[in-house]
Amino acid sequence: MAGPPLLELDRLSTHYIAAQGARVVRAVDGVSLRVEAGETLGIVGESGSGKSTLALTLLRVLPPAARIVGGRMLLDGEDLVQKTEPEMQDIRGKKIAMILQDPMASLNPLFTIGNQVAEPIRVHEHETRRTAWQRARALLNAVRIPSPEARVKQYPHEMSGGMRQRIVGAIGISCEPRLLIADEPTTSLDLTIQAQYLNLLRELQRQHGLALIFITHNLGIVAKMCDQLAVMYAGRVVESGPVSRIFNAPVHPYTKALLNAIPRMDDPDRRLNAIEGQPPNLAALPPGCSFAPRCALAMPRCREAAPPEFTPEPGRTAHCWLAEPAAAAGRLIVSGAV
Q1: How do residues 38-80 score in pLDDT, each as one tens digit?
Q2: Domain spans of the chain?
Q3: 202, 215, 248, 308: which is deepest, by most CB within 10 A?
Q4: Architecture of the 36-63+83-230 domain
Q5: CA 288/CA 219 separation, integer angstroms
Q6: SS3 assignment, position 214
């Protein structure tokens, strides 16, 4: 019998609340997910779907207006929602680490690279400055930074974008966390460096046995990097399951629309499909299914009642009324799969 997952989210909700509660933005709305040890989970969705807020919620480094209003975050069976701030300070960097989308947002321009890579080692593992710097040089070498002996004495502005991104990765793995969150880590990289960086992340994952949450807009990266996939829309996970099954037999119309929007190099005459309309205002979500106003398959009930979570086949979930017959029959029924 399989043991409990490394990370389990149970109906997790994070809202941005304006003064006196006059306006509530449901950035993360009842998200449930599981991440096994050593597994890679991809999270995709349009901008504003709640992906980055979910990552910040996991680390509990939310901006002042944001609040975790419900649900649980179980890491090795311990609920992070119930942890005090000093307890979370011990967890951040040691058990959970994060690679931010913009490396300059996480690298301090006033401190050398060596100081910044060595800091988590000194804080969490109480190593001496000499030992921490030795490990910092070894980490820079592990992420393929040339001349690490010289680079530890330099500052972030003296590095290229690709090198800064790898340095942020070195900081992330410095204390060998159980879970690494990568939020759009390849956005600022050209295609050659992007491929090298992805291969580096996979190699580091194998070496350290860590689980990886990969937040991205790029479904090609998901196909290469991820074991499981969660598709987010309007703060909710509308579909989740193994990458291969979702790519070959998507259930939710939003997932199908995302996959149909991928350019096909083997069919240059194929029209590039776009998803009509705009994502909803998270402070004024429509009744029923949030995707219904943009969905060509929407039925009257879609605009009246939000669909519950269905299980169209073992290991998969979908919040869509179209998945109800498949869940009831215990098999997957898909029309229009790509």
Answers
A1: 999 999 999 889 999 999 999 999 999 999 999 999 999 999 9
A2: 36-63+83-230, 251-329
A3: 215
A4: 3-Layer(aba) Sandwich (3.40)
A5: 27
A6: strand
